[in-house]
Amino acid sequence: MEEYKINTNILSFADTEKIYTALNALNSIEKDEAITNLIAKLVPVPEKDIFTKSQYVINLSSWFNDEFTYEKATSLHQAICNQCCVKIEYCSNKGRTVRTVEPHKLVFKCSLWYLYAYCQERKDFRMFRLNRIVSFEIADVKFQKRPTDIIKFDTKYGANLFSKEYRDGYVKVVLEYDQKDEFSLSSKIDASFFHKVEGSSEKSQIQFYTSDLAWTNELVFSMLDKVKVISPLEWCGIKKVDSLFSRIS
Q1: Cβ pair 53, 17 in contact under 8 A
Q2: What is the value of pTM for the model shown?
Q3: Phi, psi at residue 180, to the nearest 5°?
């Protein structure tokens, strides 16, 4: 009924706080008047008050003005709303491919945007990372939405890729670095793995155990300009990516 209003008294403050946090997170990536109006309907107290008391702030926007990702996300969102097929040129681990997909959802996972779409070539749903889409073209061809199950975000590399303590089957990795590079390295790996070298005011070490050398080699190579490999021994002295891959494959 037109005059019907939701009784917000059924919501506790904790309920309201969670609703506000979730809706405000959506507003951080796309200023949508519909979301703003929904916040006004469901959050009966001033936003300033609930923001002050809230224990979480979720902001999905980038620190940078990433116009490329924003352009892709905005255009693909329109394709989802209009149920239009999209032809994409995509970089995968098997090289570039061109395929036609039926876009169903935009997914934000671990600071990256993905397109969840039905691939007409694979005859199944696939997840496409937006920054791996070279180019795309929204077609005039419409599609019918398909039933989608809950997307299972299984941990890709197991629950414990890294460990501070030895575990059966894990390999110890030790990397030496200059303390002046500590801030930069903390963007690559958690700072809890940093250890000061006794008797040295300049050198420190990154120490951890890993269950997946194939994945860890890529991480270590990305830091080779700032670290020296101490362990495992077969990695010592590696300076080229070809040597790194060949020694641990």
Answers
A1: yes
A2: 0.71
A3: -65, -20
Q: How far is CA 24 from CA 11, 34, 37, 78, in A?
A: 18, 12, 11, 21
Nearest of 75, 63, 15, 81 to residue 42 by alpha carbon: 15
- Show Cβ contacts of residue 12 under 8 Å, excluding neighbours closer than 6 positions: none
> Closest by alpha carbon to 115, among 139, 154, 87, 142?
87
Is residue 173 within 8 A of residue 189, CB to CB? The reply is no
In tens digits, the chain (249 residues) has pLDDT values of 777 766 656 778 888 889 899 998 888 877 778 888 888 888 878 888 888 888 888 888 777 677 788 889 989 999 999 999 999 999 988 899 999 999 999 998 877 899 999 999 999 999 999 999 999 999 999 999 999 878 877 665 555 789 999 999 999 999 999 999 999 999 899 999 999 988 888 899 999 999 888 889 889 999 999 999 999 887 776 554 444 444 443
